[in-house]
Write a structure and sequence with these properties.
This protein is an alpha+beta fold. Helices cover 18% and strands 28% of the residues. It contains two helices and seven strands, in the order αββββαβββ. The strands form two sheets. A four-stranded mixed β-sheet has the order 4-7-6-5, covered by helices on one side. Strands 1-2-3 form a three-stranded antiparallel β-sheet, covered by helices on one side.
Length: 101
């Protein structure tokens, strides 16, 4: 999962152990995302729900295609006609790709 999110956000894989992986923002060390291994399967939804917003001027459809190429899959939550796309990372954690900000 850490490899997927590192590629998805263009962050650097900073630390990896058997129990967790830490990603750091490439432009500094203040922002980070930590992925922790959990035992068992979640019985309802994702524990964390991320919103991915492409940079201003980027193409939302191109970003969705890039994330699919990294292993993300489409998710239908019954969202209908909305301005975002719902995907799941390779471990099934759902997230939204918003319009560029």
């Amino acid at each position: 999962m850490a490899r997927f999110w590192g590629e998805a956000m263009d962050w650097t894989l900073h630390e990896v152990t058997d129990d967790h992986a830490t990603l750091r923002w490439a432009k500094g060390v203040v922002r980070y995302l930590e992925c922790r291994r959990r035992s068992g399967l979640s019985t309802w939804g994702s524990r964390v729900y991320l919103y991915v917003m492409p940079y201003a001027g980027d193409d939302q459809a191109a970003e969705v295609a890039r994330l699919r190429a990294l292993g993300a899959t489409d998710v239908d939550l019954g969202q209908g006609d909305v301005s975002w796309t719902v995907l799941a990372d390779p471990e099934g954690n759902e997230f939204c790709v918003l319009r560029p900000g």
